[in-house]
């Protein structure tokens, strides 16, 4: 109890009691809590707060009738309303404009207005602008001193200091050749940019209101909130904006920018001494506003706060991080994901950076500018950097070329921001990120996870970490990556910058049609060949072969000993490049995709021992290989719509095969024996019109064969696995004959399964119905045995 014997401690005790009473009252009266917090977070974007106070000499007719109306109109065009000195609503203003003239300070009314308005000077969020109209600074200072001499007791010392500071501020002075329109536009633009800095577009209009609502919903006490989002999205600027708005309501404030880097370079003790020395010496809890920017390790934040004294009720801790998991580990009360700018805000920011003017209409921006805006996809950093880069080029062709260059070679500022997130990942996460950037953007998560697992990675953990670090997003179950991040990651992959890691980062090469068009000269082709032959570290290639140069030999793939992923596709279906005679593949290939593959078979010298997935839809294949190959690793094969395919007998020894897709292979004569394929789960045979019979296969296989006139199915083929039976029966083709080797359980049938079916079912004597099946509607279905009808005793309703 000794701590409470001092006067300060007693006052603190009283303060604590009052705060608890207020907290209790606030819980019973939420409106009070909301109104207080709304005052803390009063934002300029709210219409009621979008006002500027203009102070001027009303006796000067030129200023009153010409300058002020023009200035008011300029503010109005920017969405800012104006208050003149007739209004007494200074508290609602976010900015003050002082128009100093020769007689401004000599008139008591103007002088009183000046001193009253100047008191807002120390408000961090209040903007002050000065205009010298017909008077220079030294002349104004002399007039000001004279006015103070005439009214020595009218103003307080604090008012005098504020007034002196305002007079010494840099101001706008009209140049002789400058028109009034240019002059007022310059003033309005200056004030607008101070009120709404480019870095905070979108923050005042939307985000602060969201933060206000979140904080209002928290119980009274020490509040905390975390901001997270992708690199360059504006987490730091949002934290600064909240800090600026709320700082005046706290006893102690501290904004620690680049917290992670500062903590690692200076250490905990230096941080405490530099920023919290006075706070740590206090025995009385203070009401603290603390912002930790760029937190990457929750233990750093926890160790800092553990050394600080207890905060008073009403304190607020804000943590900004790229990693959502850091916020979860720190256990902040609430998290807020910082989203990108909307289209209007993006246009506004880009135009301010590129053209130094505010453009908010799409038709006023040229196509190349809109392409950049769409590419930036709402990321403020990308919009600012690309806008600044584009501002140095005037011709449209130059801008288009520059944009292509920026996509291939991102600016240094963007590279550094994204690379800092990349290097914080482990090797597994880095590899997965590079593969997604080059090969898997827009692909289904489940499919990508299977492929990555087949390539030797751990996607379940890695993808979750990339999402938490805001490097990858999942939308409609598909992996997406922001263009800015994708551009940086691709450059990292091409340059193999992470070669010092214990597990070398994959090098992925993606060749586009544009790249191949550049290979017109012999020297270019030679360089290309040398690139392929010399780059043995390449692990993945995604190749657009629409306009493949005839001189490029695909046999070069064989020399890429580390190549594990190869995808060849055609962005232009009408252009399939040169006629291919042969090519080679490396031994270690695990994933091979080639749309419209042009040859009759795969290379005879290709050893598919490591192949896990083979995708060759719409191919010209007639057979896979001439002879038996080792397919011990093969899990999935997709040959759908390969209309010349005759047989796939090689698959009979693919013991790890899980999925076979032969949909639309209209010349496929038979299906091989797969009794040894114990891992097989799905077989797709729709529209395989020449397959007459189906061999024995495991009982846990899902068979789809609608549109295929299969006459014979050998046992054991439980119809419970024939998921497409209902659709098959609705196609009136030849009768389906289930040869009698045992009972078949019609577990797949549901009420109405045979509705409108006209298919003749033969040999139904061996049909045994499940006891759980009660209702069936079988219009026009023909059963050939009275015994079978008698066997349907478990049905409650049979409709023919």
TrEMBL record:
One Gene Ontology biological process: signal transduction
Keywords: Leucine-rich repeat, Plant defense, Repeat
Residue ranges of domain Disease resistance protein Roq1-like winged-helix in the record: 426-494
Superkingdom field: Eukaryota
Record keyword rRNA-binding present: no
Residues annotated as domain NB-ARC: 207-359
Protein's name according to its UniProt entry: (rape) hypothetical protein
Positions of the TIR domain: 87-195
Coiled-coil region list: none
GO molecular function, one term: ADP binding
Lineage of source species: Eukaryota, Viridiplantae, Streptophyta, Embryophyta, Tracheophyta
Pfam families: LRR_3, NB-ARC, TIR, WHD_ROQ1
